[in-house]
Give the backbone structure.
Amino acid sequence: MVVTGGRGFIGSHIAERFSAEGFQVMTLDIESGTEARLSPGRPAEDADRRVVADVTSAEAAREVVRFRPDLVVHAAAQTRTGGSITDPVGDARTNIVGTLRMLEAARSTGTRAFIFISSAAIYGEPSVLPLTEDAPHRPLSPYGVSKLAATDYVSYYRRAGLLPALSLVPANVYGPGQQAREDGAVVPGFMRQALRGEPMTIEGDGSQTRDFIYMEDVLEAVWLAWRWLSEGGGRAAGAPVAFNIGTGKETSISRLADLVEKTIGRQLGRVYRPARGGDISRSSLSPRLAARHLGWSPRVDLEEGLRRTYEWWAASIPGSAERA
Ligand SMILES: NC(=O)c1ccc[n+]([C@@H]2O[C@H](COP(=O)([O-])OP(=O)(O)OC[C@H]3O[C@@H](n4cnc5c(N)ncnc54)[C@H](O)[C@@H]3O)[C@@H](O)[C@H]2O)c1
């Protein structure tokens, strides 16, 4: 199999999972860094072959074709909402052209399954929650637009009979290995602040909601999607081309901060900043379609997922748990 974005948070876990299942794994990523991401002292990902290339390049496509994978999981992306606003052209190149490159490469080599990691950003501001797959698409950022265009291409490849392909549409994924960065995800940001004993930074008033889905639940969804596609699940007339991967539950950012404090057993306080551009106020994704067709449902609740994530952070930063 090939995992694009194999050095990233989600991609590295996918590589590890499929490697453990006995797959020959090739990762493809523009980054060549080898910092441990999954657990302290471990290589960045389990892979039999690591290719450093840009998914938009002909070289990347050639490498995929040469590897002749049964399965391509396309997780490489420009993932910053803010970055997509400042550089929409770069965002579109990576997220749209990169996806097309990988679809074409997979098609030309007769890949049995192509799984695209889309994003809940394709929906934009919801009118009804939890969101189902037939909800309107009104993305609020260039990132949402580019992920939507890529999702549409994936659907086209399936409907046109070019490739057994589908999109998984994850909500807010969190778990061990996710990096804290300035304009990044909220859970690792809170974790880092918790371990430093700093107050947690909340953008907006904290009443905005998200659907937090634990990494292992996403991995299980990828695994079940592979089995479904490879067993011909996508061939039936009217078979879905995209599946939400969420819990169906909304959690406010303030509640998340409370749960982080509960996890570490200490009050940290809050610092409030203006809300970011391109952010929605509420979100949750219905898992019902994935349950019906893939047999998937979320297993790890938020308290347990935060506990496991915190354990990873505490082990990653020696001495930090004592300081917290
Ligand atoms: N983390 C989440 O909450 C979340 C939620 C929904 C969807 N997603 C999607 O999941 C996928 C993985 O996200 P992540 O959270 O692991 O982010 P990440 O930033 O950790 O991983 C993305 C990886 O893609 C690589 N990449 C970027 N541009 C590339 C290019 N041009 N060529 C090759 N590699 C390139 C990066 O180097 C990085 O390793 C993305 O497609 C993202 O849109 C993530």
Remarks:
- The pocket of nicotinamide-adenine-dinucleotide is lined by residues 5, 7-11, 29-31, 54-56, 75-79, 94, 98, 117, 119, 147, 170, 172-173, 185 (CB under 6 Å).
- The chain has a mean pLDDT of 93.
- The chain has two domains: 2-173+213-245, 179-210+249-281+300-323.
